[in-house]
Design a protein that fits this description.
mainly alpha, DNA polymerase, domain 1, 4 domains, three-stranded antiparallel beta sheet, 17 helices, 9% strand, elongated, DNA_brk_join_enz, Integrase_catalytic
Length: 412
């Protein structure tokens, strides 16, 4: 029943003293009577006193099967139940991609998928699929050519990166897998598409952009060294570590022992999705779990003398707080961290703003260029796979070994 129908019933209940519950029961009775009246087969009582009729059954040669019940009311109940089941199955078969996306999103919410992931998937859908004609097509009628045409369209003129395409592909994979789960289809068209054809159609990622330069890093540290503020200390320490912002702002003073920072928890940004696919207010939780691989997430980070000096200043600034960085008795949040970085640091220094995650890239690149082995760097970043770590390395300097090899090979 729609919200409008419910409001009308509530109106009649108030105005004419008609019970909503009674009205709903009356409506249900009328619908059931209509089902019995439209039943295509004769309902009759046999000589043995039992009641008989037929129900549609496509598995039978004549398209029907006989049923028998002890009373007329029971045979009516069976007819009504069968009708509603077939109607529901027919409705399911008529679901389009848009309908399935909604069902999939609500199923994931109800089965405990991370709210952040749900919001990211929704954003990909809204940006690339919500206005595309593909979403109005029945899920049972979509084949690999429809998927291929869609990706050809969104990669036209190198409009998106391959990473973005992969994100959209992940959403579609999830929707079709849910259609299989609901037994609407037996096979997803997604694996039938040759995705290699889209590599050259995608916008190349510039691995040399987004990092803070060494000069910018030094400029920021010098500027903030005179600012006695939790945001100042938080930004400074970020430039000496490879932490996610959620890990950094969740650091408690007790996590620092003998010049070692123990990463035990993270602040998570949450937004619960409603049934109509809108999202509730943002709220934050501090949880003892780390993004990605849990085994690699809980780790120990050595603190350099300068990093330890920043820690001590932060503690002196707020000696009684539970967390290392607090403002007005509360831990800092990622959004306010980035806002402070942009408005209070980058703009006054005339430095291009890059958010907290790019500080993580910057530190990772600096450590790699200084000779840290990639497996050790992966541990600091909490990556279980070094391929992910290489994505974080945005080299700006020419490799000295490469330069030496070029001299030996070419300057002869």
């Amino acid at each position: 029943m729609s919200d409008t129908e419910k409001l009308l019933l509530q109106y009649f209940e108030k105005k004419y003293n008609i019970s909503v519950e009674d009205a709903l029961n009356d409506i249900e009775t009328m619908k059931n009577n209509e089902i019995i009246e439209q039943h295509p087969y004769r309902i009759f009582q046999g000589s043995n006193g039992r009641w008989y009729t037929y129900l549609p059954d496509e598995t039978k040669n004549n398209g029907r099967r006989q049923i028998a019940k002890s009373t007329e009311s029971k045979i009516h109940e069976t007819i009504i139940k069968d009708y509603k089941q077939r109607a529901k199955a027919n409705d399911v078969q008529n679901l389009n991609l848009e309908n399935l996306f909604s069902l999939w999103m609500k199923w994931r919410r109800d089965t405990g998928t991370d709210p952040k992931t749900i919001k990211e998937n929704f954003n990909e859908w809204k940006r690339f699929l919500s206005s595309n004609i593909l979403i109005k097509k029945k899920i049972t009628e979509i084949d690999f050519t429809d998927i291929e045409d869609f990706f050809l369209e969104i990669t036209k003129d190198h409009a998106i990166t391959y990473k973005r395409l992969t994100n959209v592909k992940s959403v579609l994979n999830g929707v079709f897998k849910h259609a299989i789960r609901l037994k609407i289809i037996k096979h997803s068209p997604m694996p039938d598409v040759d995705y290699t054809q889209f590599h050259t159609r995608c916008k190349p990622s510039n691995s040399r952009k987004e990092n803070y330069t060494d000069g910018e890093r030094k400029k920021i540290l010098k500027f903030l060294s005179c600012v006695d503020d939790p945001y100042s200390y938080c930004i400074q320490l970020a430039l000496f570590l490879c932490l996610r912002i959620g890990e950094l702002i969740a650091v408690e003073k007790s996590d620092i022992q003998n010049n070692i920072l123990y990463i035990n928890r993270s602040v998570r940004k949450n937004q619960i999705m409603n049934d109509d696919l809108t999202f509730g207010s943002v709220y934050y939780t501090v949880e003892e779990r780390i993004k990605g691989n849990q085994d690699d997430g809980f780790r120990e980070i050595p603190l350099t003398p300068k990093a330890l000096d920043i820690v001590n200043k932060a503690i002196s600034n707020d000696p009684h707080g539970k967390y290392l960085f607090m403002k007005n008795g509360k831990p800092l949040y990622a959004d306010s961290f980035n806002r402070y970085l942009k408005e209070k640091v980058c703009i006054p220094l005339n430095i291009p703003y890059r958010p907290s995650h790019q500080i993580r890239f910057t530190t990772a690149t600096k450590l790699y260029e200084s000779g840290m082995p990639v497996n050790q760097l992966s541990n600091l970043l909490s990556h279980s796979d070094t391929r992910t770590t290489f994505h974080y390395i945005r080299q700006k300097k020419a490799d000295s070994k490469a330069a030496s090899i070029m001299v030996d090979a070419l300057d002869v």
